[in-house]
Design brief:
Blueprint: H1 32-45, H2 50-57, H3 64-71, H4 82-89, H5 92-104, H6 106-116, H7 120-131, E1 141-142, H8 143-152, H9 157-173, E2 182-183, H10 196-202, H11 218-231, H12 245-248, H13 250-254, H14 258-271
Antiparallel strand pairs: 1-2
Helix pairs in contact: 1-2, 4-14, 5-7, 6-11, 7-11, 7-14, 8-9, 9-10, 10-11
Length: about 270
């Protein structure tokens, strides 16, 4: 499953100010090429190299399909109850696959739980719900074009200007080549669908190869997911069901929807055999 709507509110949406465009931010609307030129200057001011800026932004155009998709979103959870939503997400094939993968990655998950304090079942639940453990749809849209389009649109320009610069920083750091910067309709990247600013802020090189790869490296994906919750104030050893501090705090940083968080809890319980 992939959640691509703005109503999904991935963690970086609450953290965009850390990557927000500078005071001289590009002016949204108007001529798109003029906007991109201004974004190029802002990216350079943020330390992105001319070569990365040129390769990423040269010839970029507005994706009207992205803008149309963004404008028609009304929140994927509003029309469904928790029971209705979970019934289509927490299903036997997913649970069975997640349990098998939890055995396969038992040592890795134990290391992650020991370091970050987040239960392995919850990490597995997130990985399963987001992209079917990396085997589902991670998105096929060029992230830079998607974010440039959303940044040019004036509805949330500061947010997406920051995300665009963060996306360029991912390339600058060598974490992903530009050809692998593909994602969903709001620029989410990888197996647990991080926005670029979350990628930069929470990404962990857990396989030790010098790069944070949230598309291909299972250790990086799972550790980064746990790190987000840990950094958001996860209380190790405490419960995380509805109404608990973890549910209302760290898990809300992952997703603002109570229905989605309840589904995360239920998936974790089922993976644990409860």
């Amino acid at each position: 499953m992939m959640t691509t709507t703005i109503a999904r509110i991935l963690p970086a949406f609450a953290l965009f100010l850390a990557f927000a465009a500078p005071a001289s931010a590009a002016k949204c609307g108007g001529d798109f090429n003029t906007f991109v030129a201004a974004m190029s200057r802002d990216a350079a001011s943020a330390g992105v190299s001319p070569s990365v800026i040129s390769s990423a932004l040269s010839g970029v155009t507005v994706d009207q399909n992205v803008l149309a998709f963004d404008r028609r979103q009304r929140g994927m959870f509003h029309a469904k109850s928790f029971e209705e939503y979970a019934r289509t997400r927490v299903i036997a094939p997913r649970i069975k696959r997640a349990q098998a993968l939890m055995q396969k990655h038992a040592q890795l998950l134990s290391r992650i739980e020991q370091r970050f304090g987040v239960p392995k079942e919850l990490v597995m639940a997130i990985w399963t719900l987001e992209t079917d453990n990396g085997g589902g749809d991670m998105g096929k849209l060029p992230v830079v074009r998607t974010l440039a389009s959303l940044a040019w649109d004036c509805r949330r320009t500061e947010l997406f200007q920051g995300e665009l610069i963060a996306a360029l920083q991912i390339v600058q750091r060598g974490d992903l080549p530009l050809r692998d910067m593909v994602g969903a309709y709001a620029g989410e990247i990888g197996q647990t669908q991080f926005l670029p600013s979350s990628y930069v802020k929470y990404g962990v090189d857990f396989d030790g190869n010098g790069h944070v790869d949230l598309r291909h490296s299972v250790p990086d994906v799972l550790a980064s997911t746990a790190n987000l919750l840990h950094t958001a104030g996860w209380q190790t050893g405490a419960p995380y069901g509805a109404g608990t501090a973890n549910f209302e705090g760290a898990m809300r940083e992952w997703n603002r929807s109570e229905i989605y968080r309840k589904t995360m809890v239920l998936m974790a319980q089922r993976i644990a055999g409860q």
